[in-house]
Amino acid sequence: MVLKNFIVLEGLDGAGTTTQAKLLHERHALQGIRAVLTQEPTSQPIGLAIRKILRKETPALPETLAYLFAADRNEHLHGPGGIRDLSAQGCRVISDRYLFSSLAYQSVGCGWDLVRELNRRFPLPEILIYLDIQPREGEKRLQSRQQREIFEFEDFQTKAAAGYGRVLREYAASAMRILSIDATRPPQAIHEEIWEFVKAGEVK
Hints:
Elements (H helix, E strand, L loop, with lengths): L1 E10 L5 H14 L4 E5 L5 H10 L7 H17 L4 H6 L3 E5 L2 H12 L1 H7 L5 E9 L2 H8 L11 H17 L6 E6 L4 H14 L4
Parallel strand pairs: 1-3, 1-4, 2-3, 4-5
């Protein structure tokens, strides 16, 4: 199932998903189009618990983290004022990461099958935008960060990149519209290509 009005940006750490999600949200506002910017993990209680694990403040098994991401996503989608409600109201929802991050990242520690099963019933977005960057380039961009999360290292990112490759292959024939874009280009150039792709699909 594909959820109308739902746009997701994905990519390795350092690819620029947060920057591009913000630019896309701002572009909607300039065009007078109602849109909401969101992200995963969320700022809800489960999402905050996840962030503590990512910052190494709370220890957790890889499987536990996969379950927590799925629980946070369930609230994000189905909770009051969540993605489903907004989409049904005709509001475009732009999310910085979604279930594809779980498939790419959590599957490294606990296997593809478990993560896919945990996320099997969640709807796909109407548009998936993948910001493609090599792990080494992403590592260079992350070096300025004062604190690294548990996944923000080149060896892990290389494994996550393979996971994203599998995501793109397995979902290539789905009903989603997928744009894979070179994330090493200037941010504004990337944004313009994303905007043209979104407009071409006449998301409603």
